[in-house]
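Reopening this one. Same input as before:
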Amino acid sequence: MSHIISYSTADKADVLAFLGSNGALSADQLRRLDRMRKDARDHQDTLDDQGIDWGLSIPDALDHLIAGRADSDAECAGNAYHAALQHIIDHNASDPSDLGVYSKPSTFFGLVGEELSRLGVPADLLPNGYLYGGLPLEFPFLPCSIDGYPAIGHLPLAKAKPAADAYRAVLDRVDPDFRYDLQELIEKLDFEHTEWEHATREFDWYTQDTIFFSLT
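Same output, byte for byte:
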């Protein structure tokens, strides 16, 4: 089975505003919440059509998160909570882009991380640490997904250029099996840094600070 790594940029405060809000939201946020609920229902319909039962529906998981809880004891509750949170992120972020499709992304990027670490790339910039490494510290705890999918990772936009520069510096020494994917990651991080730098300089309303990654 193949898994897709997608990403988008957002202000993490915009996402956090929905968690535990109990519906105490602005008119614009309530409109977004309506769209999140529709997408959650559509997502659940797709799971139902596939005969997939997580023991907690995605719409119910979304309601839990809005209420400030993630305490379902369903065996696959983590799957539902991560899927629901991704819908919240999606409605507060830029349009998503795909990093790539991988048969075993955690294994592959784990090996990439070992290779980069061997070549001196700092631990906080290793891709396996942020592509599916969890949420920012300010976010509430979510139970893990069964089998690791879906998963959410994040990288502060301020670290996009340092990460790209660190990979670029060792690219010619990286195992050839990893070089293409690493070059793709460098290009995407470079682009996100350029967009972030331009927007923060030109627009006083721009507050995006995080790249969120989605592994499905």
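So the earlier flakiness isn't reproducible anymore. For the record, The radius of gyration is 18 Å.
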